[in-house]
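Page header: ASSEMBLY MODEL / two components / 429 residues total.
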Amino acid sequence: MSFLHDILYRFREYLLLIFAVLISFIIIFSNDNPQVNAFRGKMLDIFSFVQEPLLELERLDNLEKENMLLREQLVELSIRVQQQKEAVLENQRLRKLLRFQVESKLDVIPAKIINRGSSTLVNSVTINLGTNDGLKENQAVVISEGVVGKVIITGEASSVVQLLTDVNFRLSVKTRRTRANGILLWQYENICIMDNVPKTLDVQVGDTIITSGYSDIFPEGLQVGKVTQASNDVPGYHKQIRVETFVNFNELEEVFVVLQRPRVELAS
Amino acid sequence: MIQRILQYVGIGIVLLFFQLTLANWIRIAGIKPDFIMLFVLFVGYREGKIAGILFGFIFGLLQDISAASAFIGISSLIKSIVGFGAGFLKGKFHVVNPFILYAIAVLLIFVGTLLYFGIYYAASSISFGTMLQQLILPSFLYTLIIGSLLLFIVPIDVERL
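Prediction written out in full:
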C-alpha cells in the first residue's frame, strides 16, 4: 500500500497531466453532448454579461468608421453620378452635332470651344482648330440652331471666333416668309436688332430670320433667330424689329466651321 | 499559500478579460496574441508542474468557453501540457543560462500554438502548409512578441518576486 502511495506521490505530476489530458479529451469528444452544450450556454451568458458593454463600445467605434466610409462612398458615388449625367448630356450634344453634320449640305468641320474670350472689346471664343485643319479667316461658324459667328484670327492649331453677340458684328439677313432684307446687330443678351427694314415691308412677330446670302462669309438660308417685336411706331422710314437668336451663346461647347460655300451653290 | 493562489487567480482573470477584449482590439489580420498561454507559462515557471497543469487546465477551459469556441477542451489540453512543460523550468534561473530558459519558453509557445491549430483544424480541408503560414506562425510570433515585451514589466527572474 505504501509502495503504491510512493509511486503515486513520485509520479503525481505526470499522473495529474495524464488526468488533465484525459479530461480534456473527454470534453472534446463530448462537445455534441446536450448537457455540455447547456453548460456552455450558461457560461456564455456569464461571459456575455462582461463582454456586452465592451462589445457595445467596439460596435460604436465600428459604426463611426462605417459612417465615415459610407460618407466617402457617398461623395464618390455622387461625383460618379455627376460625371455620368455630364456624359449623357455630352452624348446628346454630340449626336445632335453629328446629325447636323450629316444632314447639312455645307462642308463643315466640328470644333470644340477651348476658351472664352476675356477681351471686353471683342466677344469671342477660341476653338481647337487652326490652319492645319483647313481654317481660314472669315469662315462662318454655325451650329444646328443657327449662326454663331465667324473666324477672325487663325493659328496653326486654334482660332478665334467672333460671336454674333459682339458689338461690332454685322450680319446680312432676311425674313424667311417675306424675304425682307436687313442688317442684324447685337443689342443685349440674345436679343438683336434687324435694322434697315422699310416700314412698307411685311415683318411680323414670329417670323424666322435667316442669312441673306449676300455676304461671302455666310451661305444663304442659315437660321439666325425669330422676330419678337416688329413695330412701325418709331420716327424715320425703318421698322423697329427685335430678333431673338436661336443660339444660346452661354451654352456653346461645340461648333461647326463652314469650310466652303454649299456644294450645290459652288456647282451652280 | 492561499493568498498566492488567489493572486494567480486574479492575474488569470485579468488576462482572461484581456483575451476577451484587448486581444480583439490589437488583432492584426484576425490574428490575436494568446495571453492565457503566457500566463500558464508564467505560473508553471514560477510554481512548478502541478500549478502549471492545474492553472493551464482551468484557464484553458475558461478560455474555450468564453471565446465561444467551436470545440471546448482543446485549450485546456494544450495549456495543461504547456503548464507542465513550463514547470520543468522552475528553479532553473540560476542553474541554466537565461537565454536557454527563454528558448525553451519560445519552444513551448510554438508547440502549444502548433498543437492548438493542429487539433482545431484537424478535420478541415486546410493544408498544413497554409495553416502554418497563415495561422500558426503569425499567432506564435504575435504571442512571442507580446510575451517578450511583458518581460520588461515582469523580469524573467520572477522567483525573486
